[in-house]
């Protein structure tokens, strides 16, 4: 069966990718025999993407057929639970945040303040979603009765704006409950929506069918003042506060888009661009809807994703200062698509097929991380875990409301990582199961690269990386493969040290964004942008506060022109204080709420980077305890680790050198140990020298190497002491005189000379210290040994 499936997949590849294979083969044939790196790279990547899409389609068809067979015996798809054998790369945790209030008129999400809002006839209730907690208490504010099309709190949390109709927006001051209304001046235009902004020229942006109105709001005069109007025809718009980017659609097919970015440092108008839309026939003109466009921020870079239902593809666009560039397309296996972003991982939800596909687009790769799988439900009470729960089945049989319907029609995916179930008035948060994701691939270096780019649950991610590395070594994989994995970890740690991301600090997500440099730099690979993937170094519309690198690059790039000088790395700084005020006034907790930050920014997290000390204590020592027999393999791995740390200029503590010596001495591998010492693979230190001395009982060469190391390190006191212990006290005296070593006790030399029973040696030692140490003749120590010397001389005379 497996051979038949493999042959079938290979046939599909040959049929579907014949043109790409022909182009690649032709390119290679032209350049052979001159072979060079990245030869025919463009053609190769096209062939690779085609083959991956064919393989992904095969996997998807298998899952779809399996689901259909399951539906034949059951009217609903079964959802696996934790403890019932379920497996998925992403999951939601039970219980959800319940927002089911009497008289509720719907749920609205305020992405600027990370609040879930539920208006009633005369109040609006708000729940804090950062940090996400199913037990968070709601806060109420009074509003007037009336229709609600949308509702948002201001960034300073002092007022509320309610979109009442296509002509009216009503404002409420929370403290005084004062209210006033803003109306469209012309009946020929309609209000499509609005959003608050931290732009220095305005407080509020109203999107109308005739363009954008930039407004200032004053409760003192109860007025809204027009600052500027951006005139253009608008059919619909898409906006996210995290990117500060608004896209305005125009044209008969709504596929012509104009973008404006309004951040705390100014306003930038992006170039107009058209989205790609396939036609089912020559005369068809498909119309693009707002629900088919998503703005996401991944690794500090702002993308726009567009659904093409005819081509069944999800097109990706990336924003640059002077252009909007299409980055490629992802396959669609469902007519209904939604997206989420969890810890910089893109989740494409194939809603009709009830599966989600994960992508890590750090290197602009269009290959999925793993096979399509449905979301998993975890954390159900024990009473529910005795059997699987079906899609659409109520978890609470005493309730008429459906608490959970996986991929149901009432599901709304809120970017970046929330799911709103409108029917049950519940909100779920999406989590990644990094352990399952990493176990789905055997490419350990790639797995570690992926894990090291994750910032949520950094402690768990670090432990997972350590466990993978230990297992990789214990399986005795080739040293070259293990070396690649180690290089990934060392490079990640080096980068985290340079950017101080390993220290506890408040992290900034894909929030405040600023315009990067020109699209001409887009040919640079993602590896050139960042060593580990914590930001965008040199170009695009990017989240400027996502890391220190972005701040440095933005501040340098934005010195190029007067207008660009407005756009820098401060696009989120002005909001920290106001958002904190919002949190305090709403009474949603004592933690600071940054309007720029997603959920993880309210908790202080550390980097998953692994330090050399952690590699020693959590990898090398445990592996050394389990390995039986010849230690050469583990020593070779440690040497590769030392090579990698040396190339990154990372200081390694002596404990790992001492451990290596112990391994080699245990199995009497003195020749290899001598080479490591002589070639300074094991760096000289007092701890290393002392370990060599301890090994010198079995091999005199080790003791000699230890003494030489102490002398090279100018550890004169230790060197002299060891010479005396070896009985070479006269040589020790000469060394002490030459290097002026005064810290060694004279009694140590005198006792050694006395033990030799040679009166001349004892006399020489006494004479040395009498000349070398002022006042030594007056010490009791001198008197005692001088008396002993006289007794020895008297005995010899008799």
From TrEMBL:
- The transmembrane segments are none
Q: Which GO terms describe its biological process?
A: regulation of autophagy
Region Disordered, residue ranges: 508-563, 588-609
Which residues are in the Regulator of MON1-CCZ1 complex N-terminal domain? 108-223
Where are stretches of biased composition, namely Basic and acidic residues? 548-563
Against InterPro entries, the record matches this protein to:
RMC1 (IPR040371), RMC1_C (IPR009755), RMC1_N (IPR049040)
GO annotations of cellular component type: late endosome membrane; lysosomal membrane; Mon1-Ccz1 complex
Which residues fall in a compositionally biased region of kind Polar residues? 514-524
Sequence ranges of Low complexity compositional bias: 588-597
Tell me which residues make up the Mic1 domain.
Answer: 589-783
User: What's the name of the protein?
Assistant: Mic1 domain-containing protein
Q: According to the entry, what is the taxonomic lineage of the organism?
A: Eukaryota, Viridiplantae, Streptophyta, Embryophyta, Tracheophyta
């Amino acid at each position: 069966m497996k051979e038949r499936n493999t042959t079938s997949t290979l046939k599909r590849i040959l049929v579907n990718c014949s043109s790409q294979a022909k182009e690649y083969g032709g390119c290679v044939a032209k350049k052979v025999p001159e072979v060079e790196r990245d030869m025919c790279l463009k053609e190769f990547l096209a062939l690779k993407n085609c083959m991956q899409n064919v393989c992904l389609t095969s996997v998807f068809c298998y899952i779809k057929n399996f689901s259909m067979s399951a539906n034949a015996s059951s009217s609903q798809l079964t959802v696996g639970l934790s403890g019932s054998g379920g497996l998925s790369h992403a999951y939601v945790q039970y219980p959800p945040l319940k927002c089911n209030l009497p008289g509720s008129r719907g749920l609205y999400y305020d992405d600027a303040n990370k609040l879930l809002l539920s208006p009633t006839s005369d109040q609006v209730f708000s729940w804090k979603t950062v940090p996400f907690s199913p037990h968070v208490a709601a806060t109420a504010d009074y509003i007037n009765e009336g229709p609600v099309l949308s509702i948002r709190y201001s960034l300073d949390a002092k007022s509320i704006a309610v979109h009442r109709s296509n002509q009216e927006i009503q404002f409420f001051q929370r403290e005084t409950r004062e209210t006033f209304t803003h109306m469209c001046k012309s009946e020929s235009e309609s209000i499509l929506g609005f959003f608050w902004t931290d732009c220095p020229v305005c407080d509020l942006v109203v999107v109308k069918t005739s363009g954008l109105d930039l407004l200032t709001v004053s409760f003192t005069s109860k007025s809204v003042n027009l600052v500027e109007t951006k005139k253009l025809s608008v059919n619909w718009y898409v906006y996210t506060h995290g990117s500060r980017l608004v896209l305005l659609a125009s044209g008969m097919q709504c596929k012509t888009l104009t973008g404006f970015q309004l951040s705390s440092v100014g306003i930038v108008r992006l170039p107009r661009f058209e989205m790609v839309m396939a036609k089912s026939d020559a005369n068809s003109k498909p119309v693009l809807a707002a629900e088919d466009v998503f703005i996401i921020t991944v690794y500090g870079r702002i993308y726009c994703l567009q659904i093409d239902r005819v081509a069944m593809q999800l097109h990706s666009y990336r924003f640059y200062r002077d252009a909007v560039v299409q980055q490629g397309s992802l396959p669609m296996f469902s007519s209904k698509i939604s997206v989420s972003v969890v810890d910089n991982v893109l989740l494409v939800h194939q809603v009709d097929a009830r599966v989600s596909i994960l992508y890590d687009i750090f290197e602009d790769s269009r290959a999925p991380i793993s096979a399509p799988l449905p979301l998993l439900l975890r954390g159900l009470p024990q009473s529910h875990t005795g059997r699987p729960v079906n899609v659409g089945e109520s978890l609470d049989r005493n309730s008429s409301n459906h608490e959970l319907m996986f991929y149901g029609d009432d599901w709304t995916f809120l970017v970046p990582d929330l799911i709103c179930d409108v029917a049950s008035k519940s909100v779920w948060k999406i989590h990644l199961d990094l352990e399952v994701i990493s176990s789905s691939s055997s490419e350990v270096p790639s797995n570690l690269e992926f894990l090291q780019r994750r910032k949520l649950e950094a402690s768990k991610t670090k432990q997972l990386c350590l466990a993978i590395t230990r297992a990789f070594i214990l399986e005795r994989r080739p040293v070259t493969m293990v070396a690649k994995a180690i290089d990934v970890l060392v490079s990640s740690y080096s980068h985290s040290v340079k950017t101080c991301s390993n220290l506890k600090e408040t992290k900034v997500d894909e929030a405040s964004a600023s315009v990067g440099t020109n699209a001409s730099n887009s040919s640079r690979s993602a590896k050139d942008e960042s060593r580990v993937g914590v930001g965008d170094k040199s170009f695009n519309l990017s989240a400027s506060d996502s890391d220190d690198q972005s701040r440095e690059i933005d501040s340098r790039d934005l010195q190029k022109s007067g207008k660009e000088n407005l756009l820098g790395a401060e696009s989120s700084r002005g909001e920290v204080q106001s958002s904190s005020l919002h949190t305090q006034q709403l009474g949603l907790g004592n933690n600071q709420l940054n309007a720029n930050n997603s959920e993880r920014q309210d908790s202080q997290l550390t980097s998953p980077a692994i330090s050399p000390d952690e590699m020693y204590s959590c990898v090398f020592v445990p592996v050394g305890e389990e390995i039986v027999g010849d230690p050469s393999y583990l020593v070779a791995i440690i040497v590769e680790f030392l090579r990698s740390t040396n190339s990154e200029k990372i200081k390694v503590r002596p404990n790992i050198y001492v451990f290596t010596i112990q391994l080699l001495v245990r199995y009497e591998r003195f020749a290899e140990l001598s080479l490591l010492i002589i070639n300074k693979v094991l760096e000289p230190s007092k701890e290393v020298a002392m370990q060599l001395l301890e090994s010198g009982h079995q091999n005199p060469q080790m003791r000699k190497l230890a003494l030489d190391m102490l002398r090279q390190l100018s550890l004169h006191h230790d060197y002299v002491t060891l010479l005396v212990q070896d009985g070479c006290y006269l040589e020790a005296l000469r060394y002490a005189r030459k290097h002026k070593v005064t810290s060694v006790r004279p009694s140590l030399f005198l006792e050694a000379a006395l033990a030799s029973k040679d009166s001349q040696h004892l006399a020489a030692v006494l004479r040395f210290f009498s000349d070398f140490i002022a006042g030594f003749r007056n010490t009791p120590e001198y008197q005692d040994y001088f008396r002993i010397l006289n007794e020895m001389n008297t005995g010899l005379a008799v």
